Request: fold
Amino acid sequence: MIRVKFVKIVGTSLKKGTVTIKYPYEKPLITSEFRGKIEVDPAKCTGCGACTRICPPKALYLVKEGDNLVIRYFIGRCIFCAMCADICPQKAISVSHEFELATDDIASLYEDIEHDLVKCACGKAFAPKKLVNEVIEKTKLPPHLLTLCPECRRVETVKRLSFRLLGVKW
Amino acid sequence: MERLELSKVLESIARGKRSRDILLKMSKVLGRKMRNVKKVGSTSIFVEIDRDTLPKVALLVLYNEPDVYFRTMVASDERRVEGVYKLYYVFGIDSEGTNIVLEVALPQDEPVAPTIVDIVKAIDWYEMEAHDLMGIVFRDRDLPRFVLPDDWPQDLYPLRKDVSIDSIRKNYSPKAIEHARAIEAEQIVKIPIGPYHPALHEPEYFELYVRGEKVIDSRYVGFLVHRGIEKLAENMKYNQVPFLAERICGICGFVHSTSYCQAVEDALSIDVPERAHFIRSIVLEIERIHSHLLWIGVALHLLGYDTGFMHIWRVREKIMIIAELLTGSRKTYGINIVGGVRKDINKDKIEKVVKTLNEVEQEYQHLIETAMGVPQVKKRLSGTGILPRAEARALSVVGPVARGSGLARDVRKDYPYAAYHFVSFKVPVYSEGDNLARTLVRVEEVMESINIVKQLLDTLPQGPISVDRWDVEPFKRGIGAVEAPRGEVIHMVITGRYGPYRWRARAPTYQNLPAVPIMLRGVDLADAAITIASIDPCFSCTDRAIVLDLAKGSIRTIPISYITQKGLPR
Reply:
């Protein structure tokens, strides 16, 4: 006797019918938890750069352009892990469901968040304005010290200390 | 008197009867040459030995003990720390779940060690790789180029600490780039065609030597896409590496990130919350289900039963969707970090997952019954690609390959990690060693995994999903092992200040591929594809193979779909 158990599959096929969908005409099957492209809210971002330090593929990075600091997001490198959203102290980064990112224009894969820099008395631009303001607000340190670049701040501190302790004026 | 003290010390270090016996035996052979025996992490015992005593110890530890096998070997450049190169030979005691790690220091001006390839057959690739990447010479054996390309410069050993990625770029550029420069075509996109099919699968290359229909011997050329990720990771932070580790494999990536995290946690004694352990286990089992379903589908395809392939993959899709629901991504889940996981599971998700698993269970059972009822499937699987138990043991094979050859080796049972000691499950073992045995192991494992996920979801404890903080202590060693769908994955980490100082990942295929030539001996050419695929290598199947006909002396390259058809004129 020939065994014909495998013929049963015909029934299964008939019962199941078509299981594929007509993508892109129909909506793709993604769940609520899907991690897609990230969105950075420029209003909330202070330019601290925490995201650029954790980003495993370095899809987020800092660039200094003239007197501006740019946080650049290159989607081409992004692995959609959302570590940046986890780490952002301002909760400025959110994860979208967007994944249809193919393009023939590479420039559209870059997104920039620009920040004005604070200019020190010496003329050196050193840190994003919003970040400095945030620090001033949170730490209650004297603003005139925090608006100096690290180099000038060091000199200023030594000057003040030597005046207070030794009475020497530089 | 001295002997008595030593045995007392060993007693306190050993984790059980077996490790104590083995350590005592070693001390008898080595005497004073056995130094610095210490417990490391939760499963390992490190023993420092002289390089000259290595063959003696390897023979003793591995060959005379039935439950010991070779797990991995790590070469590490510790010249800046201790002024030496180090070799770590990791042997596992299956019956007790303990690692015995032989630590061998090699002076930096003479990084030479004796080979133990005659004793431990499985170490062949490890020694060649250590020579290629770290410049360690093994006496009395051939050390051909293995991982690196043939035109790689002499004396440039990329994993050494004094070789930076920049200096590698300066000293080596692939032939293709040189050629492009010569014809002034640097800006032109280069598309390499072959040795792999560029469309689908991963690059691999087998040369089969045949006489008539029978395969007589075979040769494997691999490492065509060696990506140097171990070097990359040395420049990354601890919590960035899991994402890199996950990209080692395109199908079972989560095992690598888990294994890496476990190695760091083991080294730094981080106490991971129970809920995180459960979530890791759940995701690992989901991954095993989808990986095995994928493999079963591919196997049916290679056997010419495409209907079964389609239906199995239809069922697999449901698993992919719940994987996304639990982690946020169908693949490369990205939820592992050192000290726990990033994504929690709620009640709603548990319900959905259980519902899907019940559906899948029912459909899968029905489909497998049907597929195994197809005469050609069973007939072509049984009796082909035999790996005898003795050879399997000598090569220290892992995973379904070991379990198909009668070795009940499963990291989940032998070295319980994550939440596996909270669940009950069977480890299917078949002793025939043929393709059917390996297939049935996987077929049954799918059912076991569905069962495990249900048990875990049922008993998921409350609590945090990761530790609040953990501190780094440099130059601690840790080992993490995970049972991947393809077999055991083992990672060793030596901690650095900001990221791993040395990270060694060993995937299961590395251990299993050397067994393929044995399986291929004497099989029909038409069964070569399923035999190679039967170890579930990290490439789904060979897309193209070269056929050398020894009788005719001809060489032809033919597509894989062609050789899987039996009885056709060639």
Summary: The CA atoms of residues 198 and 474 of chain B lie 43 Å apart. Confidence is low (pLDDT under 50) at residues 539-548 of chain B.
